[in-house]
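User:
I study polymers; will you set down one protein's sequence and backbone structure tokens?

Assistant:
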Amino acid sequence: MESSNTLQSTDFNSFEIIEKRLGNEAPQSIIDELKSIVSKYKISKDKLEEMINRIEREIEENSVEPGEPVGMVAAQSIGEPSTQMTLRTFHYAGVRELNVTLGLPRLIELVDAKKTPSTPLTYIYLKPEYRNSREKAIEVARRIEMTKVLNVTLRIDIDFFNNSINIILDRDMLEDKGVDVEEVLKVLQKAMKRARVIQSENNPYEIIIQFEEPIDPTKVEKLREKILNLRIKGIKGINKVIIQRRGDEYILVCEGSNLSELMQIDEVDYKRIRTNNVKEVEEVLGIEAARALLIEEIMNVLEEQGLEVDIRHVMLVADMMTRTGTVKQIGRHGVMAIKDSPLAKAAFEVTVKNLVNSAARGEVDKIAGITESVIVGNYIPAGTAKVGLVFNPYTKSER
């Protein structure tokens, strides 16, 4: 523990040198880390200077030049590797029963800001008193998994002669879902207003729905679907729950998402719950959380395909999609629609419609962006052309 004496034993002040050289250039986190290293180890002045030079070189090499067209660089950096992606990819989320859309379809979902992903998933972490017990995890899973009549039905028969529908329940599925016959009976009695719902005397797992009016053969399929889709228990949108062991705890992997209701369950650790539904995260947790999830999901898709893209390009895309306070798609109805330039909007898609609408509204184009500058033949405001130079040919004495 000689860290406190290290600086005093040298004939130079390391912290002062670090602040002087890096104070205005390096992020505070790098400065703090370097100070920590200097405090922990006895480093000579030459070695410190070498470390600072290396940091300065790294910062310079990774800094964006003034006037750099970062939008075009980001588009190329993400677009080119995306051409190497597989068109139709599914992978199993650690278990056989659930899959996740990956590859190009998932990337398109994200940049198009789809309201619901094709395979929504939610990862539920439990509170300390529940996370280490499989039995308690199963209990929570049974309570949140949406169970319909369909899930516990072995067979459903239409009896036109007796004007009834007979439902044979699956004994094993009832036990697996933690549902009893009485619960199914109550749900059917509540839903079937113009019918008498009773339990069969011959078979305790048979429920008979006796209708007052004759069953219409043309509507029987619709009626059957209505009965099978009745919800017995669980949270709407959570279609399946799988229990996984991760490290020293059990987590619940859910097919579907319903963040607002899941976060209210007492056993759920609401601070760690995670879903891949960006729009739902925006509605429940806010735009900053949606932006963070968008970056994470895009990076996950690229990394899963073995593609290396600098996270800063993805961050720029996420910033553009979320800068208005809502998640907007990269398209004519989203990011392009909020552009001020009529020419830029017209250059993207539906040219005539955009020009006619802009003319009808009397919009003015200030030719301030890259697209509109190219159209009218101006220098683009990027690179060296971004600098405005004023030259006065006369000296003070000549005036």
Summary: The first strand starts at residue 89 and ends at 92. The radius of gyration is 32 Å.
